[in-house]
Structures are given as C-alpha cells and as structure tokens.
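Record type: monomer structure entry
Structure origin: computed from sequence
Chain ID: A
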Amino acid sequence: MEKEMLEIHEYKGEGYKPLIDFNCWRVAVLRYLDELQPDRISYFERHNETDEVFVLLQGQAVLFMGEGKEQVEKINPYPMRQDIFYNVKRGAWHTVALSRDATILLVENRDTARKNSSYFTISPQQSAFLLETVQREIPEWQRLNE
C-alpha cells in the first residue's frame, strides 16, 4: 500500500489531542489531566454547533450531563463503559472525570472551539456532587489515581 493512502497516529501524552482532521470532522483523544479529577473540575461546556461522540477505550470515566438552558441546574452522571458510544448532542452541557489510566476517543466537528462553545462555572455544591458521585460509582477511583 502506498504511504499516502494510510496515516497512522498514536498519542500517549496527557490531555486533549486532535489526531485526524478531514473535511468537517475531527478524531481526537482525551487522556488524563489534573483538571479532569472530580474535585478539580470547574466548569461544564456545551458545543453550540455540533454533537460530540465519546468512546472510553481504557480506564474509567464518568460523563456528567447538565440540565438547564443558560446554566447547569441538575447534573446526571453516566459511568462510562468501554467500547460504548456516548453521543452528547449539540447544546448539551457536559464534562467528564477521568482516571489516570483513561483514554477517550472523541469525534466532533473539526471547527469545534471556544468561539462556538459555551461554559458554565460550577458551584461548590456541584463540585462536591461530582466528587461524591465518582467515589460512589467507581469505588476504586482513589486507588487508581494515587
């Protein structure tokens, strides 16, 4: 096979990294970041022009969905299972907590950025809810993150 017909990408670093952009779509990887520890998450985001697909490849994660139009009024947790596709719809508030060994595959529009997304700073009570939920849903979380 000719080299220009196949691209191979790998990412083992921390955080968010776009790997493949084509026309209007992007495939990216999200890996551990200190800011994605449940006691350090400070905001929910929503993308105003695109859905965003999350697939947990390894590790553990909890996807949090926020209800409310202009702000997050209620939080619904979804402990993620590997190889399941989670499609966060356009305009839905969301955030995710990751264990240190977690890797999430993301598929989104190529131009997804701050300019077409909104952010909501969470309250101390909401922050406490995120931490309590992760500790309840994934009891080994603390051990995984030491």
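Annotation 1: Residues 53 and 87 are 4 Å apart (CA to CA).
Annotation 2: The radius of gyration is 16 Å.
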